[in-house]
Inverse folding.
């Protein structure tokens, strides 16, 4: 693993080679709210297609609320919040943040339109069109954030680029399922409960696969605050999913408690990914050692 | 990325003649009105600037080594390495690729510059740069700057909040002058000129140093086939790049973006299918 003199990897006074991100707590919160908004839009549409109107309304409204919160978090994180509209100056496929800004605009606009028209019972064709756009942009909204962080020089994010979209997709599915299972009566929330269980399992598996493949570079997921958040995510989501999958079908309090655990666990998962990026950037070994090994190998 | 209209220019920083005077740091700050951001004693040799950032566009590194300057001196020796670091103005620039507002652009000189009237401080370029060059300026706003509002509500924390870095003195180039740091450098360690010419000059200099038996002499960022397509500002170093705090094999993150988008699209499809699957079975 180590290169250079005395078995330690060389560095300049132990200082980072790359800069840690400047993003604030709004960003991991947004990963979570954006994931819920996107996956809820898809859940609402599937529920509508399957004739489960109750679940459809719950999921769509949940999605619209989280869609409304998301841009506020993003604007608040900017160094120049008053220039947030500059995000829509250009469309750049090389910038997942640019692509994501347009996705969020489309999804939040469509979700809100669909919910408002549904509530006032007007313009049914426009409502259906809005719901279709909302559903189509939901999954991209829930997953582009993984591409955003992976498309950086931060080793733990960049090298995890294969699994990270699946971690975020699973996490979004689990959170959206849990939110709907919490808000809809147990009789119509069956698919939401199953989604929370399968999403939490998928996120746990994808995160474990990523961590194993990353090896030394994945160390931040095992230590410090990123490690604590990762363990919290695994534990809370697994317990919540178990509760939802068993007693959640019969008891509303059990469903609410299980859903809260899943929601909290998946929030912790976003925080573990976020914090891991900082830990990865702040220690020059994670940048230098793999690059030096690559040069030695070639 | 479009090809530059004019001849591409850059820096060749020959660290073998750097004397650590920091005239480049001072000239850069003076010319570009880069604010003072704290005066600290680090105890790390003569380096109190520490790193490149929003308020440091030239940074002189100092490395005290128990290593011989010449190979023929054997194992014994002491040497003091100095190197003036700067934005690399990459051929494939990650900061430019990821910038969502178009604030970062490539100039007619082939350099990479932030338009400060466009940057909204999203910070994406900061962790995207493989060299840690860019950073957000966390200093109070200029007093001429009106307090920011969104929909009439006050926002922000009163900080500048934008990202800043070396412009390779874009304003001076447009008037036919060389950048301030190169102008101020008393030993010609910092050389400015057309990139092709600088590369030839660097090759000749490396040949001479190697023939003279200098220990560890190597070019850094000169190769157009490296992970960033070659740097517009490249270096002659006397030890491995990581000793100077430089990444040994930097790669522009967007090189892997097509694959990353494919994985992301797969995950999005899996998400839609997975949610649909929750409606199968178990339904009364």
């Amino acid at each position: 693993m180590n290169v250079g003199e005395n078995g330690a990897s060389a560095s300049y006074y132990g200082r980072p080679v790359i800069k840690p991100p400047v993003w604030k707590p709004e960003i991991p919160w947004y990963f979570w709210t954006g994931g819920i908004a996107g996956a809820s839009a898809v859940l609402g549409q599937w529920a509508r297609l399957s004739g489960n109107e109750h679940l459809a309304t719950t999921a769509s409204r949940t999605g619209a609320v989280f869609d409304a919160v998301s841009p506020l978090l993003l604007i608040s994180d900017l160094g120049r919040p008053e220039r947030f509209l500059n995000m829509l100056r250009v469309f750049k496929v090389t910038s997942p943040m640019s692509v994501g800004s347009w996705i969020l605009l489309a999804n939040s606009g469509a979700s809100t339109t669909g919910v408002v028209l549904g509530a006032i019972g007007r313009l049914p064709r426009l409502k259906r069109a809005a719901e279709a756009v909302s559903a189509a942009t939901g999954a991209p909204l829930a997953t582009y954030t993984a591409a955003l962080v992976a498309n950086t020089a931060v080793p733990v994010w960049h090298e995890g680029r294969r699994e990270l979209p699946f971690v975020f997709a699973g996490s979004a599915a689990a959170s959206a399922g849990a939110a709907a299972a919490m808000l809809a009566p147990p009789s119509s929330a069956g698919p939401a409960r199953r989604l929370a269980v399968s999403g939490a399992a998928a996120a746990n598996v994808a995160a474990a696969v990523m961590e194993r493949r990353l090896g030394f570079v994945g160390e931040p997921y095992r230590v410090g605050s990123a490690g604590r958040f990762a363990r919290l995510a695994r534990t809370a989501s697994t317990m919540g999913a178990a509760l939802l999958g068993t007693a959640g079908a019969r008891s509303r309090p059990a469903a609410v408690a299980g859903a809260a655990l899943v929601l909290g666990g998946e929030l912790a998962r976003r925080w573990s990914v976020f914090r891991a990026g900082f830990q990865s950037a702040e220690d020059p070994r994670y940048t230098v050692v793999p690059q030096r090994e690559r040069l030695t190998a070639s | 990325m479009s090809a530059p209209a004019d001849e591409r220019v850059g820096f060749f920083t020959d660290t073998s003649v750097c004397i650590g005077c920091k005239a480049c740091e001072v000239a850069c700050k003076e010319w570009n009105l880069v604010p003072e951001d704290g005066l600290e004693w680090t105890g790390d040799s003569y380096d109190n600037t520490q790193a490149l950032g929003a308020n440091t566009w030239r940074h002189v590194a100092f490395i005290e080594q128990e290593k011989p300057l010449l190979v023929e001196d054997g194992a014994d020796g002491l040497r003091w390495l100095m190197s003036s670091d700067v934005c690399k103005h990459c051929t494939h620039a990650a900061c430019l690729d990821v910038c969502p507002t178009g604030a970062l652009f490539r100039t007619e000189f082939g350099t990479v510059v932030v338009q400060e009237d466009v940057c909204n401080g999203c910070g994406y370029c900061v962790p995207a740069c493989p060299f840690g060059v860019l950073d957000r300026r966390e200093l109070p706003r200029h007093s001429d700057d009106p307090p920011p509002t969104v929909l009439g509500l006050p926002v922000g924390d009163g900080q500048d909040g934008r990202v800043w870095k070396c412009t390779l003195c874009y304003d001076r180039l447009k008037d036919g002058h060389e950048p301030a740091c190169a102008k101020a450098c008393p030993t010609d360690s910092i050389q400015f000129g057309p990139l092709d010419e600088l590369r030839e000059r660097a090759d000749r200099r490396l040949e001479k140093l190697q023939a003279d038996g200098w220990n560890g002499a190597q070019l850094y960022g000169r190769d157009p086939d490296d992970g960033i397509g070659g740097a517009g500002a490249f270096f002659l170093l006397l030890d491995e790049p990581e000793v100077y705090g430089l990444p040994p094999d930097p790669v522009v993150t967007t090189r892997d973006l097509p694959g990353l988008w494919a994985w992301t699209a797969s995950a999005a499809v899996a998400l839609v299918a997975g949610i649909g699957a929750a409606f199968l079975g178990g339904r009364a």
Confidence is low (pLDDT under 50) at residues 1-7 of chain A. Chain A touches chain B through 87 residues (CB under 8 Å). Chain A has ten helices and no strands. Residues 114 and 128 of chain A are 7 Å apart (CA to CA).
